[in-house]
Amino acid sequence: MKATILCLITLCAALVLLDACTASTPAHPTASFGVQRTSQMHSSDRMFYWHEESRELHAMAVHREREAELVLKKQPGSETDEFAKQMKFFAHQLHELATYAELQAKEAEGEIDLDPSQ
């Protein structure tokens, strides 16, 4: 029973990770998709885009941290400890991505006054 529950939790986490990876901004600042998408936007649009990305990534991170704590509370054990550790590491990575997004928002905010099309 415990193994089945742990397998289901692991599968759900893997699906969440896959969904998060496909839905979020690329981790590397020079990744072509994120650069192409935001370079075609006005500075103010980019600022709002990156602020929203930052908020969403922080929310996802907090959600993962809470999930890890809940799993530890409901199913204590060494397997669960490792799973929670991985979830918390993923949450840490999401927080780092959110910080990157916030830096991008601040950079775009600084460009608003310089953008003649505004």
Key traits:
118 residues; mainly alpha; 4 helices
In words, what does this structure look like?
There is one protein chain. Helices cover 81% and strands 0% of the residues. Helix 1 runs parallel beside helix 4 and helix 3 (43-74) runs antiparallel to helix 4 (78-111). The radius of gyration is 18 Å and the shape is rod-shaped. The protein has helices at residues 2-23, 32-39, 43-74, 78-111. The protein is an all-alpha fold.
Structural class: mainly alpha
Q: Indicate the radius of gyration in whole angstroms.
A: 18 Å
N-to-C SSE series?
HHHH
Work out the number of β strands. Answer: 0
Molecular shape:
rod-shaped
Main sheet summary: none
Unreliably modeled segments: 24-33
User: Terminal Cα separation, in Å?
Assistant: 60 Å
Give the topology, please.
Blueprint: H1 2-23, H2 32-39, H3 43-74, H4 78-111
Helix pairs in contact: 1-4, 3-4
Structure at a glance:
With 118 residues, the protein is mainly α. 81% of the residues lie in helices and 0% in strands.
